[in-house]
Write a structure and sequence with these properties.
Layout (H helix, E strand, L loop, with lengths): L20 E2 L4 E9 L8 E18 L4 E14 L2 E6 L3 E4 L5 E17 L6 E2 L7 E2 L12
Antiparallel strand pairs: 1-2, 2-3, 3-7, 3-8, 4-5, 4-6, 4-7, 8-9
Length: 145
């Protein structure tokens, strides 16, 4: 690494030790960043989402692709024009820019979501409303002092 920085340090920790944050646009939805740039991971971010019964996330797009793996529960997920009922052990690929949404069928619904550690513009796609920008900036693109 440049500038006298040291190499990333390996990390092992229990997911329960990672705080869960509410998802701003979600209903009864939280996210944990299990491994990310703050941990030395420079390429990807590993997140765990949890949605309670009745929870979900409205239709939105992202500038980055998503790779997901369902841990438990069931949900109806819309990806583009297709609707899928998914449950434990299902894997999903959501290309960048494709609208997608989540509605819990059986909670809690939990899944892992891996995304590139890159700038991501998140745009809500609610019918009858102007798109709402919920952009996040990855830590790797922030200036550190």
């Amino acid at each position: 690494m440049q500038g006298g920085s040291s190499a990333p340090v390996p990390l092992v920790r229990h997911a329960g030790a990672v705080p869960a944050r509410p998802v701003a646009a979600g209903r009864d939805t939280t996210v944990q960043v299990l491994v990310g740039p703050e941990d030395g991971a420079s390429n990807y971010v590993l997140r765990r989402f949890r949605m309670e019964a009745g929870g979900g996330i409205p239709a939105h797009t992202n500038d980055v692709e998503h790779e997901q793996y369902v841990l438990r529960g069931r949900a109806r997920i819309r990806i583009g024009d297709a609707v899928h009922d998914v449950g434990a052990d299902d894997a999903l690929f959501i290309p960048a820019g494709v609208p997608h949404s989540y509605d819990v069928i059986e909670g809690p619904f939990e899944f892992l979501c891996i995304v590139p550690n890159a700038p991501d513009r998140i745009m809500l796609q609610e019918p009858g409303q102007a798109p709402q920008n919920l952009t996040r900036t990855p830590a790797s693109t922030r200036r550190r002092s």
